[in-house]
Amino acid sequence: MSKTGGMCRSIKTLRPPYAEDVTDEDVRAAALQYVRKISGFRAPAAHNAEAFERAVEEIAQSTAALLETLEVRGGRAR
Predict the structure, then answer these.
(1) Considering only Cβ atoms within 10 Å of each terminal Cβ, which end of the chain, N or C, has fewer?
(2) At what angle do helices 24-39 and 49-69 cross, to 10 degrees?
């Protein structure tokens, strides 16, 4: 895989001490930005909409699970 640039700058760190009170909307927004960056689509065509939304939801769920299990300075990250 070639390196063609950095990660989308709109994605922010969602764990303390960088972020407090992270909401489900924050997690979904990060997942959406990730899928947009990876797919190259801001909004998918109708025939790709289901796959696009499924990816956003799966990534949001994985992100929430990650944040729930991370330990930061002896405590949970979220």
Answers:
(1) N
(2) 130
- Residues 6-18 have pLDDT tens digits of 544 568 899 888 8
Taking Cα atoms as reference points, which of 55, 54, 22, 61 lies closest to residue 37?
A: 55
Give the pLDDT of residue 12. 86
Q: Are 21 and 54 in contact (CB under 8 A)?
A: no
pLDDT of 60 reads 98
Question: pTM for this structure?
Answer: 0.78
Complete DSSP assignment for 35-69: HHHHH--SS--GGGHHHHHHHHHHHHHHHHHHHHH
Q: How far apart are CA 13 and CA 49, in angstroms?
A: 27
